[in-house]
Amino acid sequence: MSRNFTQNFVGGRRVDPLGSESIEVRSPYDGTLVGSAPLAAKADVDLAVAVARQAFDEGPWPRMPVAKRISVIRRFAELYEARADEFAALVTAEMGAPAWFAGAVQTLIRDQSQAYLIAAEEYPWEVRRAGYPKGNTVWVREPVGVVAAVIPWNAPHQVALAKLFPALLAGCTVILKLAPETAIDGQYLGELFDEAGLPEGVLSILVAHRDVSEHLVTHPGVDKIGFTGSTAAGSRIAGLAGAQLKRVSLELGGKSAAIVLDDADIAGTVEALRYRSFPNNGQVCVAQTRILVSRARHDDFVDALVDNVANMTIGDPADPATFLGPVVSERQRQRVSEYIAAGIDSGADLAAGGPGMPDGINHGAFVRPTVFANVDNRSRIAQEEIFGPVVCVVPYDGVDDAVRLANDSNYGLSGSVWTTDHEKGLEIARRIRTGGVTVNNAVPDLLSPFGGFKRSGIGREFGPEAINHYIEHKTVAV
Known about the structure:
The chain is α/β, with parallel strands linked by helices. It has helices at 42-58, 66-81, 84-95, 99-122, 156-170, 187-196, 210-217, 231-243, 266-277, 298-310, 330-346, 380-383, 399-407, 422-431, 463-468; strands at 3-4, 8-10, 13-15, 22-26, 33-38, 126-130, 136-143, 146-150, 173-178, 203-207, 224-228, 247-251, 257-260, 290-294, 349-352, 370-373, 390-396, 411-412, 415-418, 438-439, 453-454, 457-458, 471-477. The protein has 2 domains: 3-252 and 456-477, 3-Layer(aba) Sandwich (Aldehyde Dehydrogenase, Chain A, domain 1), CATH 3.40.605.10; 257-445, Aldehyde Dehydrogenase, Chain A, domain 2, CATH 3.40.309.10. The N and C termini lie far apart (62 Å).
């Protein structure tokens, strides 16, 4: 059943769009219509910002006791959880996320929501302390203002809520800008927040292409931009924001390295990396797409990885048995295919996959899961974010060389170390210049900051560090 929206969600209400364009979202698997929604014009952005500005400057939300804001967000989390399966299926239909992955993301959303509520309850919203050299000080953390939250298509609800929760808990008003590829799922968030008790004017949700998106981020009524997406787009936004001295946080791309030490069990490591290197058809910013293996174990590791890839079920993303579905669009399929061709031209060994459609599939935006072996870490396929099911295996000579190769990247978002010696793994993890590292198959902490070094971004999400991006500091001397 297609879901067709004819109105925008502005400040808690459905209103007729001021532009004339709309967008259809079709399944990248079989082309069926998932739904349609209005495309925002600049006038729609102006209206949404005006509503958000009034709600922030005059409305109750920024002035509401934090405990009441927490209760509204907690109620939203309860309402959302009741529809988690529905939302997972919708994202699968929109962008081809395999059902297993879409379900796992719903678990992540539940856990990250609870973590944000814990962080808000423990956050030092107001602190009274003795001043120096004398007197007393009240240190108040206040909301930064009107926020433009701009999100990608690969895990749309998870990324949207990773920004909406801290912004709303801080007392900000927000315009959420959805990606055109996933223009439908985000529409449902508005009514859920309304039902949870979010006051009028606090949240608007729009779909827009680049020119209108730039109008939003440069709008003088917007105080803060929270963006997740490509490094190129993040760089553009940072430049626009810098010219206006706007606050900005950016969660960008990655080319994360998994360092496999010689004492690691190859079979177990390969099976675990199946879920860390190929999740969501390779369309995850933290995907570990550079696997560093010692030269002595390189061939054995590649053989095991190729066997694992050969056993991946490829097909209908709605089928629970499917491990890999299509990428989000034909345009993305062509982009990934160009990288596969570049990998072949680089002289790397094509160990699995390659150009063309997977065997037995003749429709949809599919890419064959591809493994390159004996990859030169300086090559394009090792240095650039491909955002598809393509993995590079890079040989190293000794642990110091492995760390050097891991750090030889413009990115620094995620990574891992695989070893039977946890202390050794921790020691190596400390040397990797990246925002997050796991030792073996450890689960990241959702109360700890998430974000990247270098070109992987500015700022952090999750925990109190995320709330920090949506507040201003005020000190009152008394």
